[in-house]
């Protein structure tokens, strides 16, 4: 794969969007196209559980594919589940995607190597704030979430329970003033599996037309999401 580039906070290649967040990283380690990190207005994050329903897996994949076809870059965390579906949906339509990692670049697991190589080969990027030999730990997954949202102008929540790790990214997105788009699942049979989504929706009885919370929108279909993208 590509060589690893170390980008300090005072380097002109360092994404300005991260300098505006709480606890801005001092440096980044990047494989691939580091310039993608600076395109905040062209980056959209797609996040969700590692154990999605078939519905959510399809939503993550098709959402990423549609958004990439409109010229946006997809940001996610390269974990199994929603993250992988989002990266693959983007890559399958020849889009560009950024994987924000919770460990050093030497700790990419064997099962992730193929996806990581594909991301770099497709003019995407792998990025982390951790030294190459840093293993993943519980706190590093939370820390990296602020970077996922910080690099993006929009964060899309596909599926999450209330206490899922994805809700950390939601919290950071709200603190950073990012747009947050939340998927509303069909029916109620999987309501517990989408309890994070539903709690966000129910907090403000949000809808596509709700102007009282301009940073938060709800979508129920790919058509809904496409309309949100058109209005960016």
List the helices and strands and how they pair.
Layout: E1 4-8, H1 16-19, E2 27-32, E3 43-47, H2 54-69, E4 73-76, H3 82-91, E5 97-100, H4 110-121, E6 125-128, H5 138-150, E7 154-157, H6 166-175, E8 179-183, H7 195-204, E9 216-219, H8 222-230
Helix pairs in contact: 2-3, 2-8, 5-6
CATH class: Alpha Beta
Quickly count the helices: 8
Any idea of the CATH topology? Answer: Rossmann fold
The spatial strand order of the largest sheet comes to: 1-2-6-5-4-3-7-8-9
CATH architecture group name: 3-Layer(aba) Sandwich
State which percent range the strand residues make up: 15-25%
The profile of the biggest β sheet is:
9 strands, mixed
Low-confidence stretches: 205-213
Helical fraction equals 25-40%
Give the topology string: H per helix, E per strand: EHEEHEHEHEHEHEHEH
Query: Using only CA atoms, what is the Rg?
Result: 16 Å
- Shape estimate: globular
What class would the helix/strand composition place it in? Answer: alpha/beta
Q: Compute the average pLDDT.
A: 91
Number of domains: 1
Strand segment count: 9
What is the end-to-end distance?
34 Å
Give a structural overview.
It is a single chain. This protein has 232 residues and is α/β, with parallel strands linked by helices. It has a single domain, classed as Rossmann fold (3-Layer(aba) Sandwich), CATH 3.40.50. It has helices at residues 16-19, 54-69, 82-91, 110-121, 138-150, 166-175, 195-204, 222-230, and strands at 4-8, 27-32, 43-47, 73-76, 97-100, 125-128, 154-157, 179-183, 216-219. It has a 9-stranded mixed beta sheet, with helices on both faces. The longest helix is centred in the N-terminal third of the chain and has 16 residues, at 54-69. It is globular and about 45 Å long. The model is unreliable at 205-213 (pLDDT under 50).
């Amino acid at each position: 794969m590509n060589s690893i580039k170390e980008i300090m906070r005072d380097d002109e290649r360092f994404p300005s969007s991260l300098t505006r967040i709480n606890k801005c990283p001092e440096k980044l380690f990047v494989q691939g196209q580091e310039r993608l990190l600076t395109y905040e207005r062209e980056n959209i994050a797609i996040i969700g559980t590692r154990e999605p329903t078939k519905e959510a897996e399809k939503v993550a994949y098709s959402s990423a594919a549609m958004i990439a076809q409109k010229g946006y870059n997809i940001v996610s965390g390269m974990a199994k589940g929603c993250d992988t579906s989002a990266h693959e949906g983007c890559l399958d339509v020849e889009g560009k995607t950024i994987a924000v990692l919770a460990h050093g670049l030497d700790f990419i697991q064997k099962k992730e190597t193929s996806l990581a190589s594909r991301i770099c080969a497709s003019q995407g990027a792998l990025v982390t704030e951790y030294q190459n030999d840093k293993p993943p730990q519980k706190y590093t997954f939370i820390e990296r979430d602020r970077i996922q949202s910080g690099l993006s102008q929009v964060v899309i929540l596909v599926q999450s329970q209330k206490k899922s790790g994805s809700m950390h990214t939601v919290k950071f997105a709200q603190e950073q003033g990012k747009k947050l788009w939340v998927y509303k699942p069909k029916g109620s049979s999987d309501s517990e599996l989408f309890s994070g989504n539903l709690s966000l929706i129910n907090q403000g009885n949000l809808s596509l037309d709700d102007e009282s919370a301009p940073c938060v929108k709800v979508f129920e279909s790919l058509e809904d999401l496409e309309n949100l993208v058109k209005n960016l």
